[in-house]
Design goal:
Blueprint: E1 2-5, H1 12-23, E2 34-41, E3 49-57, E4 60-68, E5 81-83, H2 85-88, H3 104-120, H4 126-139
Amino acid sequence: MLAVEDLEGQDEASVREHIVCSFEIEEKELDGFEILVAYESVGSWGCDSSNFFLLRKDGVLYENHGGHCSCNGFEGQWAPEETAVDYLLSEKFHFCTGGYDDNEDANEGAVGREIRRIFTGTEATGRRAAIAAQKARVSNPYIATEE
């Protein structure tokens, strides 16, 4: 599991506990989910905060995005949505970084590299990543193939 910014250095058990507390959900709502990527940046006084989690359950990928100002927290925002590897590897994929994330570029890069590593076996970008993704489609059950 990759954990970056405010979650850096935490293991999966700690991130799970953090999700339960921050989103005010029951532990059972995380049953079966494997956390692949965990990102969170909480600004001073809780302002301009955001998070992103990439999850896998029963071979299906999900992403969850949360954000808040200083008025509220992440409560009520736990609603993982199904996603696809093709999308995650595309230029369209994006997650919001908090306004106080001084490592925005590095964190976006680390998340992108981790996604490419998980699903293509390489951290390459550009043409090399496209070639690796094409090769991965042949053997990776998480990548949809065109027929």
